[in-house]
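User: tokens in, sequence out, please.
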């Protein structure tokens, strides 16, 4: 009998590149992708510059596969198209890199490393890890990322990650195959919505320190969009996450802390506000009881809510998910 151990099959790595007005940089991005990558999916998202045709004509890398959208679907739609094709082709780890040259393709091994080692299901870049590099980031992006980071922590439940709009990511195919593609936002909220869906699945996410290169491209992050669309979607995901996590799937001490905190806080504010208004209308001093009781209720409510937040922060997913799933095998037609 042979004592040789059977080696596990090598994990196939794919890079997905959404392509929209990237002709100036896309060939350089493709050329910089290292040999650790087995396939490169360039998704022409109905690009007015015909990026797909340009790549097919100019790119010499045999790993390149061009996919096309008949209608523009946004960066999220392009990435999901690449994910689905890569999964169907048997890829194991899917890396998303932008085609505008702002992400260094030589960093791919850093992003797939934690997944290969069984330490994470999903990795994402963090440009804020080295504080000395923050000054290199344009001011508008810096302000937008700082505000979005707090909203993202609350709405996704990943309190230990930062730089939520960073689109340099990697995900294991076993997890990506089980994402609800029809429900995920397809445009600029895509990265944050993915994090929300991953938390619902209880997948492990970790940041990868990186630098970013900023050229003459204009940022698509608009302050007005952040204050309207993003704020609404963050609030929606926050309520959905709390409902799923603390009342639908499980009922823990944090569930009662949240209910008690909200009840005490709202009732204290309403009771105290009503009696304060009556005292103002009557031009009389408020009774001691109408001041003390709502004050106690408000303070107690805040304490319960802080306890809930503390529990939520401590319950970040810790168990890697992708080894628990059997490899996804798409059904073939016929």
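Assistant: Sequence out:
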């Amino acid at each position: 009998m042979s004592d040789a151990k059977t080696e596990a099959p090598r994990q196939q790595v794919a890079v997905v590149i959404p392509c929209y007005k990237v002709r100036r940089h896309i060939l350089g991005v493709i050329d910089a992708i290292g040999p650790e990558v087995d396939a490169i999916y360039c998704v022409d998202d109905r690009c007015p510059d015909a990026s797909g045709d340009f790549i097919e004509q100019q790119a010499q890398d045999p790993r390149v596969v061009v996919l096309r959208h008949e209608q523009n679907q946004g960066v999220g739609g392009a990435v999901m198209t690449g994910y689905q094709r890569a999964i169907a082709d048997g890829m194991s780890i899917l890396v998303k890199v932008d085609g505008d040259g702002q992400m260094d393709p030589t960093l791919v091994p850093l992003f797939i490393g934690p997944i290969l080692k069984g330490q994470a299901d999903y990795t994402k870049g963090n440009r804020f890890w080295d504080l000395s590099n923050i000054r290199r980031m344009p001011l508008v992006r810096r302000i937008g990322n700082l505000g979005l980071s707090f909203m993202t922590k609350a709405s996704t439940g990943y309190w230990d990650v930062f730089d939520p709009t960073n689109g340099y990511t990697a995900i294991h195919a076993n997890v990506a195959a089980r994402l609800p593609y029809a429900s995920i936002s397809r445009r600029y909220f895509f990265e944050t919505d993915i994090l929300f869906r991953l938390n619902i699945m209880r997948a492990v996410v970790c940041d990868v320190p990186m630098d970013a290169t900023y050229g003459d491209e204009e940022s698509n992050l608009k302050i007005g969009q952040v204050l309207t669309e993003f704020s609404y979607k963050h609030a929606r995901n926050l309520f959905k996450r709390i409902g799923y996590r603390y009342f639908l799937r499980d009922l823990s001490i944090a569930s009662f802390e949240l209910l008690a905190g909200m009840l005490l806080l709202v009732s204290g504010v309403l009771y105290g506000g009503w009696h304060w208004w009556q005292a103002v209308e009557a031009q009389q001093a408020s009774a001691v009881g109408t001041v003390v009781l709502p004050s106690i209720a408000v303070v107690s409510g805040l304490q319960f809510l802080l306890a809930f937040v503390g529990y939520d922060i401590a319950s970040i997913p810790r168990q890697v998910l992708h080894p628990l799933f059997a490899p996804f095998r798409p059904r073939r037609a016929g």
